[in-house]
Amino acid sequence: MPLSDLLAGLKDNPYFGAGFGLVGVGTALALARKGAQVGMVFFRRHYMITLEVPSRDKSYHWLLSWITKHARHTQHLSVETSYQAHESGRVRTQFDFHPSPGNHIIWYGRKWIRVERTREKQMVDLTTGTPWESVTFTALGRDRQIFFNILQEARELALKQEEGRTVMYTAMGGDWRPFGFPRRRRPLISVVLEQGVGERLVQDVKEFIGNPRWYTDRGIPYRRGYLLYGPPGCGKSSFITALAGDLGYSICLMSLSDRTLSDDRLNHLLSVAPQQSIILLEDVDAAFVNRELLPTENPSAFQGMGRLTFSGLLNSLDGVASSEARIVFMTTNYIERLDPALVRPGRVDLKQYIGHCSHWQLAQMFGRFYPETPQSDRDGFAAAALSVHPEVSAAQVQGHFLLHKTDPQGAMDNVKRIRE
């Protein structure tokens, strides 16, 4: 059969025509789908802008609160349960709702913004055991300013929630995490130290904060170290907490006895501490004696873990790689146990003894608890207390006053029972 007759026969064959049509339709659909994909990629690249914020970023929790505020109508929520302790000692359960993982639509700045919260099921933070998360914002347009506005607004919202309070941070892994709820700022006048001691410390810290240029011009590292030492219960930690509240600073609390703390981790933590914070190393004598770690009941527990060395601590405080614009407070009950290398100038710039109550302190404390009493009663209480207790701590005196909240005469009559 000639080729022309064969082609003519195929042309008139209905099965061939239908198959060829199906192939054509399938090809056209595939090309349309591919074109749509290419077009969508082109549109996303040139007419959409995205911002991804991982959970390890400091702004992540700010943004969760911001999303909660703006996505009020979302019906898909996740809950974070926490406990808040009041000054009275009563503990209240608090539930915080946040948009759950998934997609949420928010109207902001005259634009619709898609917020996608994702959670990795296979990856977790080894320090907290929580899954890794991220939040991705997607908006039409090419102007990044909308994301700067969102971040700034989220930051201001977080600061407003912490206004008038002191935030406590604790070291978790290689980062600082808020510890509990922000505490109500403690007034400086509520911590009664020996006359002139508190004022001297406050003046020194404020002079340091207000003169960074002085250090820069003279090539001096811009950091300051303080050591408060003395018997327990005399107000060392209380004063630091009140000082942070007066300055509007947060407190980064670190234990040198942490078994997982290594030289590198300590140096990293000091370098990434939140801005406007006081780093507090409490009871430094409990970690080192004569440049050696204190023995542990289970030495095998340290196997596989990086232990902090004395030289690592010194290098973190004032070594070449140590950070600047930093305030470090150390406390100890036994200054004689500390190695001289730890408390030399450059690592500890100011040492201050915080001791047992003097006559002046006792009179001031009596007046703070019972402001209606005359000065003669305040002096009388101070003289009576010292006559039976030559060495009494501020914590013991405060505990005594708490037993006689509205009874100054009872506090005076039972002065011999202060230590009970």
Summary tags:
single chain; 420 residues; alpha/beta; seven-stranded mixed β-sheet; four-stranded antiparallel β-sheet; 13 helices; 17 strands; 39% helix; elongated
Number of helices: 13
The termini sit apart by: 122 Å
Largest sheet: 7 strands, mixed
* Helix percentage range: 25-40%
Overall number of strands = 17
Uncertain spans, ≥5 residues at pLDDT below 50? 296-306
Strand content: 15-25%
Cα-based radius of gyration, to the nearest Å: 33 Å
**Order of strands across the widest beta sheet?**
9-8-12-13-16-11-17
Topology of helices and strands:
Elements: H1 3-12, H2 14-47, E1 48-54, H3 60-70, E2 77-85, E3 91-99, E4 102-108, E5 111-124, E6 131-140, H4 145-161, E7 165-166, E8 168-172, E9 175-178, E10 183-184, H5 197-209, H6 212-217, E11 223-229, H7 236-247, E12 250-254, H8 263-271, E13 277-281, E14 288-289, E15 292-293, H9 310-318, E16 326-332, E17 350-353, H10 359-369, H11 375-388, H12 394-403, H13 408-413
Parallel strand pairs: 8-12, 11-16, 11-17, 12-13, 13-16
Antiparallel strand pairs: 1-6, 2-3, 4-5, 5-6, 7-10, 8-9, 14-15
Helix pairs in contact: 3-4, 8-9, 10-11, 10-12
Architecture overview:
With 420 residues, the protein is of the alpha/beta class. It is 39% helix and 24% strand. It has 13 helices and 17 strands. The strands form five sheets. It has a seven-stranded mixed β-sheet, sandwiched between helices. α8 links the parallel β12 and β13. α8 runs parallel beside α9.
